[in-house]
Design brief:
Elements: E1 4-9, H1 20-34, E2 38-43, H2 63-72, E3 75-83, E4 86-87, H3 89-98, E5 117-124, H4 129-142, E6 152-156, H5 173-195
Parallel strand pairs: 1-2, 1-3, 3-5, 5-6
Antiparallel strand pairs: 3-4
Organism: Vreelandella aquamarina
Protein name: Flavodoxin family protein
Amino acid sequence: MPLKAIAINCTLKASPADSSCGRLIDETLEELKRHGVAGRQIRAADFNIKPGVTSDEGAGDDWPEIRKQVLEADILILGSPVWLGHQSSICQRVLERLDAFLEETDDQGRMVSYGRVAGVVAVGNEDGAHHIIAELYQGLNDVGFTIPANACTYWVGEAMQSVDLKDLDETPESTRSATQVLALNCVHLAKLLKQHQYPGQTN
């Protein structure tokens, strides 16, 4: 079975507004495609993701469908713009909803997210990309995802300026190289976990 990827773009802009985060996620999905991974991007701002820490917060909550897509994928790419040095509020909400995995386990006591890998995309024109990557790495690992080596790519423009990644004719080579490594390592680890799932607590 070919691997699947789902990418969640946590820009604050709803579709169809241009998104620098979306551009770098698209480039990440293209790299994954080169390794035989079918993937798609969804924009969290297009959905009603209710606040909370369960998998279903009731009527009108769009998270259950997003959760289904996350669990159907082998690779999760979580992307966020940089806002005031932190991930977006929407990205934080996505993490909070993923927190439900802490209480959701299979018949061997493993979180339902086990066996899936995650990578991070961060984009902005202010400092904060490394901070966001560290925050998302920890959060994703806490809720059961496995983080490969160098599983991040980012672009940060000149501070206090108005140029965004979406305004550039070409993505800088350093960012393209990081994206290639992110894709390669995510695919490598996802294949290994597909063949050798983590041991259950009952083993």
